[in-house]
Structure of MBL fold metallo-hydrolase:
Amino acid sequence: MTYSGEVRVGGPADVHELKDLMITKVAVGPMDNNAYLLRCRATDEQLLIDAANDAHTLLGTIGDDGIASVVTTHRHGDHWQALAEVVAATGARTHAGRYDAEGIPVPTDVPVDDGDTIRVGQVELTARHLVGHTPGSIVLVYDDPHGHPHVFTGDCLFPGGVGNTHDDPKAFASLIHDVETKVFDVLPDETWVYPGHGKDTTLGAERPHLPQWRARGW
């Protein structure tokens, strides 16, 4: 079946099958958070992005093979409610942005800096540090050697705009700058965007609206 990226809490997961990587998207919790399970097709190693909520659903999605790692995109509580339970059940190593780790109650095994590589089996993800939604938010870029890139943006980029900066002009200016220079300026329009809530998008669909976002300030 064709991947749509449209999932709902309590509904089935959606699976994006790439040549080297399988991406399973599931919605969990009262804030409709997205969690993404990445599986290297060569090794079957798995990595979870955002153990947001509902450990039962996440562990069922993970299955008997377990996970090697969990990456938390940022410190906000709706993105780590199930982290302790998932880690206890799987023994996974935890990753988070260096400047958000202190705000996550589960210890971070691997503090992540801008440009760091995170591996799942033979697949490499590049972390980019974006400041504004939180001090240490990270996004993960998979530059698929067989196709276009894929980027997991947490709450830094959604269809229709950047993440919430709580009416703080300095935070917005920082976030829009980082999103433009570290995402839009270096990745093509075909890049698939997997956000922390809601539907997926592409950079090409959002790029024409960047001036509008800057003008409105959110």
Notes: The mean pLDDT is 98. The longest strand covers residues 21-28. Residues 13 and 26 are 5 Å apart (CA to CA).
